[in-house]
Structures are given as structure tokens and as C-alpha cells.
């Protein structure tokens, strides 16, 4: 099905118009999207990078000549001086993070203020949203079944949007903004009190230094936000497209964390699929062209929920964690490590329509034999069956089908040309290609280290 759609894929654009390509994660996040966006920009095809969903739960790492920058909210084009940076209406904006990142970038010699545009329809993460996030996790933990969120207030901020009580970025410019935030905060404090009375949640004073300090920081950040370029971003993007300029949409999180198609409730609170690019930026779908899907040569996941391809041998999982520096770019939590999960990947490609694939971390391979997950099993009343379709809940998965193939040790670190690739890695890439053959995707580039130049092109 997906095959046919992709083969017939046409872009219906008026002559002279620019287009939008999107980069999305196809696993559980942290696939290296930031690096691939940075890499794509060097081709000169795009004039801007646009975040369309998520918030500061994202952590996108960029490495350039000894400099490391982790963008949580500032789009990953920040280290390219001529690239415009857009924060779309679909994003929940943590203003403290935003202002911090702008300052960090200034210190690194990148002043982004003149090329950063924030949608007046983007949503504000209030200073109490992170506390509500923690309180909700506290309650879930008591009842059994924490999500393992990033504590950045993402769920509560999106809940307030859907409940139509949240505030927009444009609201900060209104004369009655103080009143609006006071009303919202009163509501939040009542909810926090409910968590306290019913579940015993105490605001962790030690860790957060309390609500007052959070409010002070937030107020300062809002003051600085007012000096930034807040605009009708949908209008600006359509203007740029009409000028023939192309835009790269930056996905945060990944398909397996999509609020509708991930492993609910162990998901984030936004739609991470590229279908959301149009809604999260305010553009018609006709502009959407290539979908770049990003994966690692293995799989990682942070947070709750089942992780079917998790490496059973704990010492080996730890070795992957250490070699791949698999610690969250936002929370520092260790990421669980698993084998490449082709069953989940096929599902993610079908859902996203990804037609070009980046594979990262091909330099990290720790054993001479590696496994790949090709199917899921479910055992009920002592009867085991192989799942034909991707399950509604991953906790239904009680076993996996694996295939074993030769590994390549650490031979491929820093390899930057197809000619220098070890034969084992080349055969792994061909193996993946064959397994995905009916989906009509191309593996265009393979990452062999964290730096901008650590990659080789694979298929044209
Ligand atoms: P994102 O959230 O998808 O942008 O990914 P993160 O930045 O959270 O995590 C990816 C991590 O892998 C970062 O530390 C990157 O510097 C690093 N990285 C990206 N590509 C490669 C690669 O090909 N090899 C290695 N060793 N590290 C990589
Ligand atoms: P990037 O963009 C990996 C996970 C959290 C948790 C779940 C819900 O860097 O790939 P949330 O705070 O969104 O309510 O948490 O989603 N999660 C991520 N995991 N990478 C991310 O972003 C993530 N953003 C959220 O760990 O399981
Ligand atoms: Mg990340």
C-alpha cells in the first residue's frame, strides 16, 4: 500500500514555488535528527529550519569544530549563519529554555535574534506546567505506571491548549497579559493542591527552589521574549515559499512517541508524524515534498512502556550505552538500548511516508554478531502467536523474532566515503535495504561519528 502511494508521489506546486521537506525520527527519539538537519543545510537547498511540534522535551545535539550545542527549542539550523529559524504554532514554548539557548548561542558567536521568528500562535509553557508534569507523574507512580516524561511540562501545556485555557505567545503582547497568567496560575495552583491533598505530592523545593523562583525566571524570560520577532509565521512561511525558497521542517521526538500512533500512554503529547508539519506551521499539505526519516543502527528509548527489542544481556546493553554516550540530551537519563527493530521501523515508515533514510551511529557496534528484530510474538494462555500487525499496546508483546548477522566492531568510526566502509557494515546496510525493499525507501546517508563531517553517502 505505502509502496504504491510513494511511487506515485507527486508534489502539486505552482511554478516557481518553494517546497517543504521534513526530518522526523522513526524510532523512539534521539536518533541524531539535529546532526542530520545540520548536514542537510550544507547543501544550500533550504533558507530556513522550522520546528512544528513538541517543546523543550527535545534535545538535538549539534557538533561543529569542538563546539557542542544542544537545542531544546531553538531549531537546528542555528549554527548556519544564513538560515532563518522558525518556531511554529504547533510548538509549546519554554521561554526560559529559549532565552538560555539564545544566550548560549551568542556566547558561541551565533547571534540568532535577527533570524529567529516565533509564531504568535505558538503556545506558552507556563512556569507551573513543569510542576504539574511532576505531580502527574507522582500520581501515576503511586497508581502504578509512570510515563517517564522529561518533566518539561509538555503534557500539561498541550492539555491546556486542548482545554482552551492555555496562553499563546501572542498573548504576551496584550495589555491584560498579567491578568491572564494570574488567572491561569490560580487554576494550576488549585490543581496542584488537589495532587497534594489526594496523593501527597509536595513541590520539590530542593530541586526546583520552589514556585517563586520559577516565576521570577519565567517573568524575566517573558520580558526578553517580547523583544524577539513574534509574527504571523504561517504568513511569513507562505511568503518565503512564494519567493521560491525551501524550508526544512524539524521533527522532535519520533514516530513511536506520536500521541495518536505511538504506544499510548507512553508517548509525548503532540503528533510527531510529518502530517503535522502542515498544521504545526500553517501551510497546505501540497508543499510537503521529501520526508527524511532518521534511525540509529540500533535502537534506544527513555521513559516507560515496553521496549521489545531491548538487549537482554545487561553488560552488552551497558556497553552500548557507554560507547554510544546514550544519556538523554535533555534529562541526562540513561537510554535503554536495543537491537534494530525492523518490525517497528516498517510501521514507522508506513505511517510517516518517509522516503529517504539516515542511519546514524553505524560506528557503534560492539559484538562480532548482532541481532535484528524482524517480528513480534504474543503469548496468551500458553499459546504463542506471531503478530501480523503492529499491536495497539506494546505490553502485549511477549517475545520477538530475531535474525543474527555479522557485526563490524569499531572499524567504521569517522568513515566519510562509501569506498572505505567495512564489508560487514556494507552488508548490514544492504540487509536493511532488502528488508525494506517493498517500501520504496532509500538509505541516503550513514553516520559514523557525532561531528558534522562524520558520515558517508550511500544511495543516490
Ligand atoms: P536527536 O534528538 O535526534 O537530535 O538526537 P540527540 O542529539 O538527542 O542524540 C543523538 C546523539 O548521538 C548525540 O549525542 C549526537 O552527537 C550523537 N550522534 C549523532 N550521530 C552520530 C553517529 O553517527 N555516531 C555517533 N557516535 N554519535 C552520533
Ligand atoms: P528528541 O527530539 C527521546 C519521551 C520521554 C517520555 C515520553 C513523554 O530529542 O528526540 P514528555 O516529556 O514529552 O511528556 O515525555 O517521551 N521523550 C523523548 N525521548 N527523545 C526525545 O526528544 C523525547 N521527548 C520526549 O522520555 O518517555
Ligand atoms: Mg534528543
TrEMBL record:
Gene Ontology MF terms in the entry: adenylosuccinate synthase activity; GTP binding; magnesium ion binding
User: What detail does the entry give on cofactor binding?
Assistant: Binds 1 Mg(2+) ion per subunit.
Residues reported in the UniProt entry to bind IMP: 30-33, 57-60, 150, 164, 253, 268, 333
For the ligand (Mg(2+)), the binding residues are 30, 59
Question: Which GO annotations describe the biological process of this protein?
Answer: 'de novo' AMP biosynthetic process; IMP metabolic process
Recorded coiled-coil stretches: none
Gene3D superfamilies hit by this protein: Adenylosuccinate Synthetase, subunit A, domain 1 (3.40.440.10), Adenylosuccinate Synthetase, subunit A, domain 2 (1.10.300.10), Adenylosuccinate Synthetase, subunit A, domain 3 (3.90.170.10)
Q: Which residues bind GTP?
A: 29-35, 59-61, 335, 361-363, 447-449
Q: What is its EC number?
A: 6.3.4.4
Q: Spell out the GO cellular component terms annotated for this protein, sorted alphabetically and separated by semicolons.
A: cytoplasm
Q: In which pathway does it act?
A: Purine metabolism; AMP biosynthesis via de novo pathway; AMP from IMP: step 1/2
Query: Catalytic center at which residues?
Result: 30, 60
The cellular location(s) given in this protein's UniProt record come to:
Cytoplasm
Keywords from UniProt, A to Z, are: Cytoplasm, GTP-binding, Ligase, Magnesium, Metal-binding, Nucleotide-binding, Purine biosynthesis
- What is stated as this protein's family in its record? Belongs to the adenylosuccinate synthetase family.
- HAMAP family on file: Adenylosucc_synth
Protein role: Plays an important role in the de novo pathway of purine nucleotide biosynthesis. Catalyzes the first committed step in the biosynthesis of AMP from IMP.
**Subunit architecture:** Homodimer.
Its protein name is: Adenylosuccinate synthetase
Q: Which organism is it from?
A: Candidatus Nomurabacteria bacterium RIFCSPLOWO2_02_FULL_40_67
Amino acid at each position: 500500500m505505502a509502496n504504491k502511494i510513494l511511487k506515485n508521489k507527486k508534489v502539486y506546486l505552482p511554478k516557481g514555488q518553494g517546497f517543504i521537506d521534513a526530518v522526523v525520527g522513526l524510532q523512539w527519539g534521539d536518533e541524531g535528527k539535529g546532526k542530520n538537519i545540520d548536514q542537510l543545510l550544507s547543501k544550500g537547498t533550504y533558507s530556513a529550519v522550522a520546528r512544528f511540534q513538541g517543546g523543550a522535551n527535545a534535545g538535538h545535539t549539534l557538533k561543529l569544530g569542538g563546539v557542542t550545542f544542544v537545542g531544546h527549542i531553538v531549531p537546528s539550523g542555528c549554527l548556519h549563519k544564513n538560515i532563518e529559524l522558525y518556531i511554529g504554532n504547533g510548538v509549546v514554548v519554554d521561554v526560559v529554555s529559549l532565552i538560555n539557548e539564545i544566550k548560549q548561542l551568542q556566547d558561541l558567536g551565533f547571534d540568532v535574534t535577527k533570524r529567529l521568528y516565533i509564531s504568535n500562535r505558538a503556545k506558552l509553557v507556563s512556569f507551573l506546567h513543569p510542576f504539574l508534569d511532576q505531580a502527574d507523574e507522582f500520581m501515576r507512580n503511586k497508581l502504578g505506571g509512570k510515563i517517564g516524561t522529561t518533566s518539561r511540562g509538555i503534557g500539561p501545556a498541550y492539555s491546556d491548549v486542548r482545554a482552551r485555557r492555555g496562553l499563546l505567545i501572542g498573548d504576551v503582547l496584550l495589555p491584560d497579559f498579567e491578568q491572564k497568567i494570574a488567572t491561569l496560575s490560580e487554576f494550576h495552583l488549585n490543581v496542584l493542591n488537589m495532587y497534594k491533598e489526594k496523593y501527597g505530592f509536595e513541590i520539590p523545593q530542593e530541586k526546583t527552589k520552589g514556585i517563586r523562583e520559577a516565576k521570577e525566571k519565567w517573568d524575566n524570560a517573558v520580558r526578553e521574549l517580547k523583544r524577539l520577532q513574534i509574527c504571523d509565521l504561517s504568513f511569513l512561511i507562505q511568503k518565503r515559499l512564494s519567493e521560491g525558497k525551501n524550508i526544512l521542517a524539524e521533527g522532535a521526538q519520533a514516530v513511536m512517541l506520536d500521541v495518536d500512533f505511538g504506544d499510548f500512554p507512553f508517548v509525548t503529547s503532540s503528533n510527531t508524524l510529518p502530517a503535522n508539519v502542515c498544521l504545526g506551521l500553517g501551510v497546505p499539505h501540497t508543499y510537503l515534498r521529501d520526508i527524511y526519516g532518521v534511525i540509529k543502527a540500533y535502537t534506544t528509548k527513555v521513559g516507560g512502556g515496553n521496549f521489545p527489542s531491548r538487549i537482554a544481556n545487561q553488560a552488552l546493553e551497558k556497553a552500548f550505552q557507554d560507547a554510544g554516550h546514550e544519556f538523554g540530551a535533555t534529562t541526562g537519563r540513561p537510554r535503554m538500548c536495543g537491537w534494530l527493530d525492523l518490525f517497528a521501523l516498517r510501521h514507522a515508515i508506513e505511517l510517516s511516508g518517509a522516503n529517504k533514510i539516515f542511519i546514524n551511529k553505524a560506528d557503534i557496534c560492539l559484538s562480532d554478531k548482532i541481532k535484528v528484530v524482524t517480528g513480534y510474538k504474543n503469548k496468551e494462555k500458553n499459546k504463542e502467536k506471531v503478530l501480523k500487525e503492529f499491536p495497539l499496546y506494546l505490553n502485549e508483546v511477549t517475545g520477538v523474532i530475531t535474525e543474527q548477522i555479522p557485526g563490524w566492531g569499531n572499524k567504521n568510526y569517522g568513515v566519510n566515503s562509501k569506498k572505505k566502509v567495512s564489508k560487514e557494515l556494507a552488508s548490514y546496510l544492504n540487509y536493511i535495504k532488502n528488508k525494506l525493499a517493498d517500501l520504496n525507501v532509500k538509505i541516503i546517508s550513514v553516520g559514523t561519528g557525532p561531528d558534522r563531517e562524520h558520515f558517508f553517502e550511500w544511495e543516490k
